[in-house]
Amino acid sequence: MRLRSIPISAWIGMFGIALAFIAALFAPWLAPYGEREIIGAVWEPMSWQHPLGTDNLGRDLLSRLIFGAQTTLFVALGASVLSFTIGIVLSFIAAVTGGWIDQGLSRVNDLMMSIPTLIFALVVLAALPQEIWILILVMAVLDSTRVFRLGRAVALDIAVMDFVEAARLRGEGTSWIIFREILPNALSPLLAEFGLRFAFAVLFLSTLSFLGLGIQPPEADWGGMVRDNNDGIIFGVPAALIPGGAIAALAVCVNIVVDWLLRRTSSLKGGRDG
Amino acid sequence: MADALLEVANLRIGARTVEPDGTRAMLEIVKGISFSLPMGRVLGLIGESGAGKSTIGLAALAYGRGSVEITGGTVRLSGEDLLALGPRAINAVRGRRVAYVAQSAAAAFNPAHRLGDQVIEASLRFGLMSRREARARAVELFALLGLPEPESFGYRYPHQVSGGQLQRAMTAMALHRKPDLIVFDEPTTALDVTTQIDVLAAIKRAIEETGTAALYITHDLAVVAQIADEIMVLRHGEMVEHGTTAQIISDPQQDYTRALVNIRNVRKEAATDQSSAVLAVKGVTAAYGRGPKVLDNVSLHVPKGQTLAIVGESGSGKSTLARVITGLLPASAGEIWFNDAPLPPRLANRSKDQLRRIQLIYQMADTAVNPRQTVAQIIGRPLRLYHGLTGKTRQARVQQLLDDIEMGSGFADRYPAELSGGQKQRVAIARALAADPEIIICDEPTSALDPLVAEGILRLLMKLQAERDISYIFITHDIAIVRAIADSVAVMLQGRVQRFGPREEVLSPPFDAYTDLLLKSVPEMQPGWLEQAISARRMESGGQ
Fold first, then answer.
1. I want to staple A208 with a disulfide (CB 3.0 to 4.6 A). Which of A96, A214, B42, B437 is the partner?
2. Cβ contact, residue pair B372, A273, below 8 Å
3. What share of chain A in percent tops pLDDT 70?
4. Nearest-CB residue to A162 (from B20, B364, B385)
5. Per residue in A101-145, pLDDT tens?
């Protein structure tokens, strides 16, 4: 692939994602102050000492934004990737094998989707120990039900194509059919869904944090920072808008990159990008 | 010509494309075409796919599909320049004076409305007649087109009538406004031969009686010879030859036209000894789920190194038979014998070696190869799976197979989207060959291809058979192909074998009623064949 063929929008997206990752990886060195350090008055305006001002407890907002990238990226991205892995594998197995395996998986999936996600998450997270990997796992499993539905619908369409039938006639196993014949052809809609699901994961994480079951204070995450500071909006303090803007910017960046990947993969079929 | 109805001069049409690297380009698909069409005449536009014939047809309505743009030239209807008209004026022309009949009537009708309402819709919309008059004219047209129960036909929904009837209803819709010009875009291509002849006759009669002019677009020279007064042969957006129908058929001037006229001169002598069966179908009955029987007590056999052609129209069960033989649909009764041993009915119970020996080539090469795999991956997979070839030896074998299918080097790393339809079908053949099969089931492998490309594929299949002693089961609805390549023939109708035996025996009289109809419905490349066939058919039914 030639670098010059990457459109400018994709570069912007990749730059944004890279920025968030750098912030997450090198937070202790990049942040001017500590994550939990109270360094000034409540909701101080932007100044040279505090480029983004201070938050509702007088902590440096920029530092918390940088530290928050760690948890936000790690948890939201981890949960999204995991949920797609679970959802795609199970839905493709259901679509390819059919019969009672398909029925069983689909009905269990329906059952899980029939319980409101938030309530389900609250019950499970309240019962289980508060560890970050459990949080990721619960978010991933809940989100994978949506991926399952999409994946099954896409895979069913592809599974009836002649080249899949040809693979069956050749005597290929299920894993070959799933990963070599169907998955490459299903990537376009799944990638598009990934961009959307990632944004939802960030929001869901902040909701959980708000209810006290997500990231635990005083650890910073972007969603939690919005919630901590949203009272300030009444007094004209923009502190809540900054982490909110960071979430929006990250979601937009992820979606731009996904859009570009989508165009690249679908152009192989020819004629799609007219 | 002064009295020309449609006058196209130096028409140029381009399509906007986006290259993989993002640059935009204009691809010229029609390069300076000129013709004029007097009132009441029929001009046939013929050429392979990509020749620009449909694009020209739509340009007569001043319409460009998708990213297509008319870049130059003029289209005049009775002296009025259509390309200069505004959107409102052009709509009026499309509504009143020019009509279009699409290839797929099934896709062109709205399934939620009655046929009659859709047929008269445009006439009412443009206020050409009252509803009562419109209804009466629709009934008249239904009768003219030979539709059953013309009085009540309009009350049916699209799904309640057959494909051939739907195509005639669409012709009625086009004729209803009494247009000066109708553009027929491959109206019979999707139909069975026995249906095609009825639709052709109906269209021809309707054109004669209403005195409308027509552009008739098709890739089948034999079909256009029945209807058109003049024929224009197109290739790559340029005119190859233009002349009267008689002249084009009997005295073509250009090499390309000559190739089109002399198509199907592939000939193979039928083998005489047909006793040794490599595959035998014994009394097979099959159905989908609990539905009606699709196959009913089918018995036939394929001799080693020979070709069995299975003919029949859509719905006759010929593709289902292929599914039973490959094990995709287990038979509910009867057995499949392969090399004197019964095959397990289910795919899952067959050994890898049994699977290897029976390969399948599909009708649509587009969907038969994975668009995300390169040619080398597609052909290389059976080599790895059945023969355990890897690395350099596999690479060498892939290249050898590519040479066998006459594609040479440079194709191994391409994706299917970068190949033409004929090349894709060749890759599918190479994939079948890679398994080293004893029998290849060919499910209409040439029906989606242009005639010259199809002929190349047939030649290739015959060459491979001679070299490797492979047996073919060739499923087709094209009698011309059967005449050319089959050793033995099975004629199927509604799930039963109507006739089975050596080619000369099946294709010579005395015939049963269906085989007779099938053979007489195949268009022959001479003007006047249609009238003869129809009158012969009338006489028979009159005599009974």
1. A214
2. no
3. 95
4. B364
5. 999 999 999 999 998 988 889 898 889 888 888 989 999 999 999
Residue B360 forms contact with A (CB below 8 Å): yes
Tokens for B357?
């020996």
The angle that helices A78-97 and A99-114 make with each other, rounded to 10 degrees, is 140
CA pair distance B293, B333, nearest whole angstrom? 11
Is B313 found in the same domain as B226?
no
Contact A5 B22 (CB under 8 A): yes
> Do B293 and B429 share a structural domain?
yes
Size of interface A-B (CB pairs under 8 A): 64
CATH superfamily ID and name for A70-268: MetI-like (1.10.3720.10)
Q: C-alpha angle with apex A259: A255 to A264, nearest 5 degrees? A: 150
Specify the CATH number for the domain of residue B313. Answer: 3.40.50.300
Do B379 and B444 lie in one domain? The reply is: yes
Do B211 and B116 share a structural domain? yes
The tens digit of pLDDT for each residue in B483-531 reads 888 899 999 988 899 889 888 888 888 888 888 888 888 887 777 778 8
Cβ distance of B21 and A185 shorter than 8 Å: no
Mean pLDDT of the B418-437 span: 89
Quote the CA–CA distance of B491 and B471 in Å, as a whole number. 18
Q: Is residue B522 part of a domain?
A: no
Mean pLDDT (whole number) for B321-338: 90
Beta bridge partners of A61: none
Q: What is the largest CA-CA distance in chain B?
A: 76
* Closest CA–CA distance from residue A212 to any residue of chain B (Å): 46
ipTM over the 0.85 cut-off: no
Give the DSSP letter of residue B446.
T
Q: How confident is the model at residue A93 (pLDDT cuts 50, 70, 90)?
A: very high
With respect to residue B541, please indicate whether it lies within any of the assigned structural domains. Answer: no
On whether both B373 and B411 belong to a single domain, the answer is: yes
The reply to whether B26 falls in a domain is: no
Domain match, B142 and B203 both: yes
- Clarify whether residues B124 and B100 are in a common domain: yes
All residues of chain B having their beta carbon less than 8 Å from the beta carbon of residue A269 are 371, 417
Contact B439, B471 (CB under 8 A): yes
Say whether residue B514 is in contact with chain A using an 8 A CB cutoff. Answer: no
Are B250 and B292 in the same domain?
A: no
Instruction: Provide the residue range defining the domain that includes B481.
Output: 277-508
Interchain CB distance below 8 Å, B347 and A5:
no
Q: What percent of chain B has pLDDT over 90?
A: 18
* Among B261, B285, B311, residue at a domain's last position: B261
- Does the pLDDT at position B411 exceed 90? no
B66–A267 CB contact, under 8 Å: no
Report CA-CA distances (Å) from A14 to A6, A7, A24, A193, A251.
Answer: 11, 11, 15, 18, 12
Q: Judging by beta carbons within 10 Å of its beta carbon (0-12, 13-18, 19+), is residue A149 exposed, middle or buried?
A: middle
Q: What is the pLDDT of residue B2?
A: 47
* B14, part of any domain: no
Average pLDDT, chain B: 85
> Which 3 state secondary structure label does DSSP give B18?
strand
pLDDT: is B4 or B378 the higher one? B378
- In this complex, the residue of B67, B350, B369 whose CB is nearest that of residue A163 is B369
Q: How far is CA B482 from CA B2, B195, B472, in A?
A: 48, 19, 12
Residues sharing a CB contact under 8 Å with residue A122, sequence separation 6 or more, in sequence order: A211, A213
Give the pLDDT mean for A148-164. 91
Count the domains in chain B.
Answer: 2
Q: Would you state the pLDDT for residue A79?
A: 93
